[in-house]
Structures are given as structure tokens and as C-alpha cells.
Amino acid sequence: MITTRIVRRLSVALLGVGVALVGMGLPAAQAQNQSAQQQRMVQQLQAMTQADGYLEAHRDVEQPLQLLGGPIQFTIEQQSGGVFVALPANRELDPDVFGTPAKPRAFAGTPGMTGVPPAFRATTDDQYTQVQRKTPFGDEFIAMANAQMTLEATDATATDAANTEDEVQFQARWEDKQGNTYEVRCCAMLATHGVEFPTFGGVVTNHILHGFSGVGTPLMPTEYTYAAFWGMGEVRKNGEVVDKPRIVHGMLTEYVRTEGYQLATDSEVTPTRRHFHLMVAPFMPVQGEHKFKHQNVKTGFTLPNGMELPFWHVMFENLEINSQRHE
Fold first, then answer.
1. The pLDDT value given to residue 44
2. How many other β-carbons are positioned within 10 Å of the β-carbon of residue 240?
3. Which of 95, 101, 186, 269 satisfies CB 3.0 to 4.6 Å to 233 for a cystine?
4. For residue range 184-212, what is the model confidence (pLDDT) as tens digits?
5. pLDDT-derived band of residue 93, with 50, 70 and 90 as boundaries?
6. Coil, helix or strand at residue 97
7. What burial class does residue 213 get, using C-beta atoms within 10 Å of its C-beta: 0-12 exposed, 13-18 middle, 19+ buried?
């Protein structure tokens, strides 16, 4: 168990690190100037991921067991209407998930992807307040029109493994005010096993993700997830591929937005409503290693400050959902 003193030492060392939280990296010249000590601090955080042992036990399983009760087939569709697109924002930090400066939680792993280093957290009166760097998770958003989304998937394999019987066909598109269309397609290949947290063969149903769960970034609130997937896909603008391969994550969850479409804390989640999240994060797995590296997504969408939006975090709400057990 890591002590608070070690966490604080890592935090001080990370103050100058050119490691981005999700979506907002430093310029390349600055990143290249990271000291060897700072890089070691990041590596220590990545080495602290609690899932490493579990993932190692499942990584080479050639014949994983099936889901209890048999495979679940499901479709999730949106045929019309708009979407909400997240913009870079400073995420409010929930003490139930992140703890306090005296007893921090959820800091291990690649910064932004799996944990949030204490050095990246603003504090007031011995409490964490918000992330000091912009992320795709917060209260800033815009609406885009003419959205369509289709997900056809099967959750058959129960756990992470070398092989999977899970299946995903996913396609989503939406349109900005200028008439440009944006599209994400998946999955050329499923993430059959996780890098810093489990992926359950690529598709999971009826599970808790994010928040305190340790599965996915804690910057999203803890949310019951009716269905989710992780796989490799592509990003398009006006029909042309602008970035591939990219990690694509989608999930149907209980509702995690509040009045004004602010991102909820755990105590503000609405269990009786659902929506679908599409995430193309600015991270990629490091080949041959069990960690992620920062890599902005080429979305083709320009922010008001002239910079390119470095991720897609898109929320669909006009949904039709169908599912069934399959023998």
C-alpha cells in the first residue's frame, strides 16, 4: 500500500511533467524537455495500477468461459435528433471518488486515462475542488444536429482473454452548424483484454464502470452500465478518414447529467434514465507494454480558440434499445 508521503512526493515531481490529462497536451517541444526524473515519476504511477495482476492472469487465456446464462445480443439506435458534444473543461472532483489531500484516491495509472495525480488537483480548505487541466469531462458542451447512431453487439465472453466471441458493429455520425459531418466507426478489432483496466473480452453488459470502480477514468461518475464496448476504429470528416486506428469506447449508462447539463457527481446520478456515450480518447496503448501514451485525436473540428478538438465525447439521448439472450 502506498503511503500519503509517497503520493505527495510523486505529486511534487509531477508538477512540471508534460503529461496531459485527457485531451489537453503540452506542445511537443515542451514534452521533449521532460526530465528523466519526471518520466520516472509517470512510470511509477503507471506501475501502481491495481488491475495489473488480474489482467496478467487473463491475458493469454485462449478459451475463456462464456457469460453466465449465455450470450446477450443487443442493438442501440438513434435515427434522428441531435447530440451533445463535450468540450475541454475543468472537471469538478467528487470526494467520494478522489478522497482528500490528506487521503487521496484514484491517482494511479496513466494520468487522465486511469487516474488523476494529486498535483493536477486544485484544493480549497483541505478539499479537492477541480482538475487543474482541461479534460473531456465537465460542464462545457455544444449541441450538434442530424445525428444517427447504430450499435449491434453481442456479449458472449465473460472475461478478458486472448480470444473473444464478443462482437461489435458500430457507426455514428453528426453534423456541425457549417454542415460538416463527423463520423466514428468501430470495431475493426475488439480490445479483448485491457491495458490498465479490464475490458471483459471487448463487450460488457450489466456492470458498474468509472468513478470508484477502477474500470475506466474516474473523471466520469460511477455509473451502472447496461452495455459497453472497447475496440479499434476510425474517425471521419465529410466521409474521409482523418484518424485511424483509434480506441473507441461506447456505453449505455444511467443518466449522469444534471440541470444545465452539468456532469454529475456520484450522488447526483439519475438511475431511472439512460443515455449513450461515445468516447474517442486522446490516448493509445503502448505496443508491447501495459500502459497508455497521450496522442490527440484528429477530429477535424475547430474550437473557438482556433485549436482542433483533441477528442470526441458525444452523448446520444433519443434512443431505441433492444436486447435478448441467445443460445
1. 85
2. 8
3. 186
4. 999 989 999 999 999 999 999 999 999 99
5. very high
6. helix
7. middle
Tell me the pTM.
Answer: 0.90
Q: Is the distance from CB of 139 to CB of 44 less than 8 angstroms?
A: no
Q: What is the DSSP letter of 240?
A: E
Q: Can you tell me the distance from the alpha carbon of 104 to that of 9, in angstroms, rounded to the nearest whole number?
A: 13
Residue-level pLDDT at 288: 85
Residue 202 CB: number of other CB atoms within 10 A?
28
Q: Which three-class secondary structure state does DSSP give residue 76?
A: strand
C-alpha cell at 23: 485531451
Q: What percent of the chain has pLDDT over 70?
A: 88
> φ, ψ for residue 56 (rounded to 5)?
-65, -35
> Which residue's C-alpha cell is 512540471?
16
Q: Using a CB cutoff of 8 Å and minimum separation of 24, what contacts does 263-266 make?
A: 263/91, 263/92, 263/137, 263/138, 263/139, 263/220, 263/221, 264/221, 265/92, 265/94, 265/96, 265/97, 265/221, 266/94, 266/96, 266/97, 266/211, 266/212, 266/221, 266/222
Grid cell listed for 171: 457507426
Which residues fall within 8 angstroms of residue 27, CB to CB, at 6 or more apart?
none
- How far is C-alpha 266 from the geometric centre of its chain's CA atoms? 17
Q: Give CA–CA dist 291/110, Å, rounded.
A: 7
Is 57 exposed, middle or buried, given 0-12, 13-18 or 19+ CB atoms closer than 10 A?
exposed
Helix then strand then coil, in percent of the chain rounded to 5, is 15, 40, 40
- Spatial separation of the C-alpha atoms in residues 69 and 74, rounded to whole Å: 15
Is residue 40 very low, low, confident or very high in pLDDT (cuts 50, 70, 90)? confident
